[in-house]
Specification:
The chain is mainly alpha-helical and 184 residues long. The chain has helices at residues 5-14, 36-45, 57-75, 81-84, 87-94, 101-110, 114-123, 136-164, 176-183, and strands at residues 16-20, 26-30, 47-48, 51-52, 169-170, 173-174. It is 59% helix and 10% strand. The two termini are 22 Å apart.
Length: 184
């Protein structure tokens, strides 16, 4: 059965669930009915360069937020994956960044790649650590943004791959030309 980009993104977003540990703490994970590609995308989100982190609550939370944002963006009228790579989507990702110091400290402390993401933000020129007005919370926000933006790119590619891997043959006829016309 053919699925639209939005339907694939919606399935992905809905695959995230909140569970409760025996100690009563809550965590985000993928449900048991997830597709293999979803697990692979989340695992890639836990990777920075060649460094793979073990499953991590803070990364799973960002993954869920990003998957929800992509689903909402694709659900808007006349949106496609290229639209999700534009300024509007980046603004949506920016809106996911925590603003409270306690939340930023929690992310920086719990996230296994927080230091690398903050360094990436500095390297990309999002923050100047030598500036007189330098603020550690701004550095943490920029690092969080870099991580969420990277996860967004990973998820958009995974969704595109799922869309492209569909069989567009109907009753022995290739109807790719109709789909290509819809994409224009």
């Amino acid at each position: 059965m053919f699925k639209t980009l939005h339907e694939i993104a919606k399935e992905f977003a809905e695959a995230f669930t909140t569970e409760t540990r025996t100690d009563g703490s809550k965590y985000v994970t993928l449900n048991d009915d997830k597709a293999e590609w979803m697990q692979e995308a989340v695992q890639e989100a836990h990777t920075l360069g060649e460094h793979l982190a073990l499953p991590d609550d803070s990364i799973y939370e960002i993954c869920r937020e990003v998957a929800d944002a992509i689903e909402e963006e694709l659900g808007a009228a006349d949106k496609d994956l290229e639209d999700c790579r534009d300024l509007e989507m980046r603004e949506r990702i920016d809106g996911l960044v925590p603003v409270y110091t306690s939340d930023l400290k929690h992310w920086a402390f719990k996230n296994p790649h927080a230091d690398e993401w903050m360094q990436e933000a500095v390297d990309q020129g999002l923050i100047d650590t030598t500036a007189k007005e330098f603020d550690l919370d701004n550095l943490r926000m920029a690092g969080y943004y870099m991580q969420a933006d990277s996860i967004c790119g990973t998820f958009l590619q995974a969704i595109q791959d799922q869309y492209d891997d569909q069989d567009f043959t109907i009753e022995g006829e290739d109807h790719d030309q109709f789909i290509d016309e819809d994409m224009d």
